[in-house]
């Protein structure tokens, strides 16, 4: 896998992936940016969220679960000073689908966290405390 980052001007950069997609990154005005794109550390959180959501949906589909939607809300804390690394990240999965098994959703979240999500494992190995929980939405209470 390869990627390329090109500086455009001020503090604006374009990231190009080897799969042919691009994204604009920029800094806040107080750091010389113009707020034209996402911050690089926000990209890191989005990558984590996308990686684990991909896993959870794929695991649920392979388990023949009627998954209709999956949203991962992420709350992160960063260290004071420089480098301002992530110290804690909480992933809250909101999974939707009529007839979803709570046991299967719990298993999918656990498998992603402990086995499949490369981004999560890499951050944990770097000392980030990652926690997770989930809710199943859109079902009538039984």
Topology:
Layout (H helix, E strand, L loop, with lengths): L2 E7 L2 E6 L4 E4 L14 H23 L6 E10 L7 E11 L5 H15 L1 H8 L3 E9 L5
Parallel strand pairs: 5-6
Antiparallel strand pairs: 1-2, 2-3, 4-5
Helix pairs in contact: 1-2
Care to describe what's here?
The chain has two domains: 1-38, N-terminal domain of TfIIb; 40-137, 2-Layer Sandwich (GMP Synthetase, Chain A, domain 3). 19% of the residues are buried. A hairpin with a 4-residue loop joins β2 and β3 (22-25). The mean pLDDT is 95. With 142 residues, it is of the alpha+beta class. It has a three-stranded antiparallel sheet, with no helix packed on it. Strands 4-5-6 form a three-stranded mixed sheet, with helices on one face. The radius of gyration is 18 Å and the shape is elongated. The protein has helices at residues 40-62, 102-116, 118-125; strands at 3-9, 12-17, 22-25, 69-78, 86-96, 129-137.
Key terms:
142 residues, alpha+beta, N-terminal domain of TfIIb, GMP Synthetase, Chain A, domain 3, 2 domains, 3-stranded antiparallel β-sheet, 3-stranded mixed β-sheet, 6 strands, 33% strand
